[in-house]
Amino acid sequence: MIQGISIYHFLIVSSLMFFIGIAGFIIRQNLITILLSIELILNSVAINFLVFNRYLYPDQLQGHFFSLFIIGVAAAEASVAIALIINIYRRIHGINTDDVNEMKH
Amino acid sequence: MADYSYTLLIILIPFFVFLLLGLFGNRWKPMVSGWIGTTGLGVAFILSLITAYQYFFAGAGEAYSKIVPYDFVWLSFTDTLQIHMGILLDPISVMMLVVVTTISLMSHWFSLGYMKGEVGFERYYSFLSLFTFSMLGLVVAPDLFQMFIFYELVGASSFLLIGFYYQKPSAVAAAKKAFIVTRFADFGFLVGILILAYFTNTYDFATLTKPGTTIFANAAGITFMGASAISWAMGLIFVGAAGKSAMFPFHIWLPDAMEGPTPVSALIHAATMVVAGVFTVARLFPVYYFQTPDVLILVGYVGGFTSLFAAVIAITQHDIKRVLAFSTLSQIGYMMVGLGVSHYGGEEGLGYMASMFHLFTHAMFKALLFLGAGSIIHAVHSNMMQDMGGLRKYMPVTHITFLVAALAISGIPPFSGFFSKDEILAAAFQTNKLLFYTEYITAGLTSFYIFRLYFNIFWGKDRKYEHTPHESPMVMKIPLIFLALAAAFVGFLPFHELVTSDMKPFETVTHWNLVIASVSIGVLGIGFAWFLFKKENSKPAAIAQWFGGLYTITYHKFYIDEIYLFVTKKILFNLVSRPIAWFDRHIIDGFMVGVGTVTVKTSDKIKGFQSGNLQQYAFAFVAGALIIVLSLLYYIG
Question: What ipTM was predicted for this assembly?
């Protein structure tokens, strides 16, 4: 329990992050930006886990562990995604989603 | 009992030759295929002769027994109703073995010269072997169902052989016609078999033909449209037989079947396939005689009518093979008459014996006539009588052998046809005067049309040929000479001791008045032909003129083909087939096409959603999730 900050503030922040991430994922054309959007979504979820754990079940730790998992998964995902993006760039000299519409090149 | 196990080889050799030539025939030179086929058939021929000798002459018994060297149950419905496959030897099947293998061997041999250099030589030989196999399987069948199976095989292989020149539209049409007509008749045969088996619970010939059998008691009193059930069954079986034997009104396929190679005509349309029907009736003769004498009378009248009808048409035809085809119809009519007027047992069974005798002799001289015609066609390159004349100088062997056959078919002693035809006439004279007079007139017509053919080909006008006709090569002359000897001398075989209705020998009495009458009408026919056709003159044309319309009608074969065409094209096609076709095309097909069209239209509309663009999917997913969440909030809240 943090003095002066209610659970709603945290949830509003994480919702904003989530929807900014969704919007970025849908709207942006650049693969790097899409990756950033996904990171935003993941982080908003991690915040939610921590907040609910802290405010509703302060004597338990599941939410913390889930957050740690999410950070780990996000790191792995980012490395794989960046490796893919670099490969795509080498092949077609661009990372625009509209150009990546064929499996074979 | 003597060992007849080798008879299986007679059947199987042609089958394996067929497989061998059919599968590997194109690997070696065509002539090798020809010789393999001929050699195989030669072995079968010798084995048949051995069988015949062993059966008829080695065991000198009073009556011949039915011997079954091979028999196994193929399908078993009940304890008695079983389909057997096997071999049944009795006088008629042994006789048929000899006939089929002899004629087949001669055709094989003759074809070595006649078909030389044709495209598909090995195919031709494999089909010949297939046909021989199916015909042999038919004659040794121990039950009706095996007979039916081989009936169909015979039909199919004759289709293949008639349509051998498959690039010629007329040959294709003829093959189709033969197949459809005989297949249609075979349907009657099948229905007849099934009715018979339903009431008697057996397919087995031995059970069916045992005199005094009681298996027909089940059917007693059951009638349908005024005829008893067994009469219907036997009548329908006769329909099948009439289809194969080209009896009126199923005769239409035989003249067209002459589109096939000439040795095929000799084999199929003179000696084997077309006598299958006669053989069937003879095989079931005790059933016809004891159970359904009314159908047997029908057999006699159909035969009598066909023989007269075909003989009249034969007089007016110009294609030599067609003359021979109609002559075949006429002679098979004789055989049917022989069966139709026969009684059972001893001398009463004269007609049966005479019919089988005529089958035997006819096979020899008609095959000879056809092979002779083949030899002539080979030399002149035409089927038409107008293109021939004076050929006796160029082709002495063909001339002499053809003359022998012509004398045999005219019933001039001592050639073979005289003995058999005379006995049929004698049998008819004792039983049925109407049929006797029909056949008597037909005998005169026979000798007239066959000598019209003979004089037109070998005498008549001395015409100029573009290239001088030459005698056929040795390989074609040997079968001619062999068959000529057979046609001249097989008449002396004591058939009344060999092939009789009750399998017991009997003594025949010579009716001298009948002999004189039948020989004199034969000679009259020959004399008339000599008078008209010996030298080219205007008399035949004048006579044709005098008959006027009658001649035209006869020349067009009494328009039977046209009647068939009218019935099928105008009535069946227009009134039955077209509505059915319309229903099929518009209702049934329309429904199926409609289902397809609706599917295609729908997919056209919705396939835009499957763009493969992940961002679009994500948008749809998120939007959907939002809508669900919002609507849940709205309703719950």
Answer: 0.76
